[in-house]
Design brief:
Length: 222
């Protein structure tokens, strides 16, 4: 059965396996990186002076990952809520670039997807979180080698570009949560103004923070 034929992305067994792998890696990292940091710190303290530089950089990196790791779990849980609410959609070579769109910095990679309620319009989504973004950043935008660009020629998308979504390459693999800036903070993303009440309610069910007051699309009822 094609992934797009399921009512939600989560109904696809392959998606459930991919997410399980994602969250398992996040949880293992939460356990292993602190252990590595403490072990390297102990070794650093007890080692001869001339060997200290061998442990200094790995110790700093393990310290960094120890405090970063909870964010991996948070984003995995956000991906779960999106996958349970939205179905997969498949896009061939969606428009992408670096910078030069609203809210994107000079080095920010972005993708554009159709507005669900105004298909002629496209909404830019900026890859804000660096967590697991390296794979995508090296394969999107201008100047990418053809063999790398081919790896993201087909992109799976589960969500609403006015709020947030999970993107993946076929499988699915390389799950990544992409969102408008305030989607997980207070306030409503700029592109969400004009979304229908149904779209807003669906976004809320997917874990996106949308205030009670918003600008409804013309011809809809709040």
């Amino acid at each position: 059965m094609a992934p797009t034929q399921y009512s939600t992305a989560w109904a696809d067994p392959a998606t459930r396996r991919a997410w399980t792998q994602l969250v398992t890696c996040a949880i293992l990292g939460q356990i292993l990186w602190p252990v590595a940091w403490v072990g390297l710190l102990a070794w650093y303290v007890t080692s001869p002076t001339w060997t200290l530089w061998f442990f200094f950089v790995p110790m700093l990196y393990s310290f960094y990952r120890t405090f970063l790791q909870p964010a991996y779990i948070t984003w995995a849980l956000r991906a779960l809520r999106l996958l349970r609410e939205y179905p997969w959609q498949v896009y061939e070579r969606p428009e992408s670039g670096i910078g030069k769109v609203p809210d994107a910095g000079p080095g920010d990679v972005w993708l554009k997807f159709p507005d669900p309620e105004q298909s002629a319009d496209k909404v830019a989504m900026v890859m804000r979180s660096h967590l697991r973004a390296t794979f995508w950043a090296r394969r999107l935008g201008p100047g990418v080698k053809p063999e790398k660009a081919a790896q993201v020629q087909e992109i799976w998308f589960a969500g609403d570009p006015r709020f947030a979504a999970v993107i993946a390459i076929p499988g699915p693999r390389r799950l990544y949560v992409i969102c408008q800036r305030p989607s997980y903070n207070r306030g409503i993303p700029g592109h969400a103004h004009g979304a229908s009440p149904h779209a807003v309610e669906r976004a809320r069910r997917a874990g996106i923070r949308v205030p009670e007051l918003y600008v409804a699309a013309p011809g809809t009822e709040a």
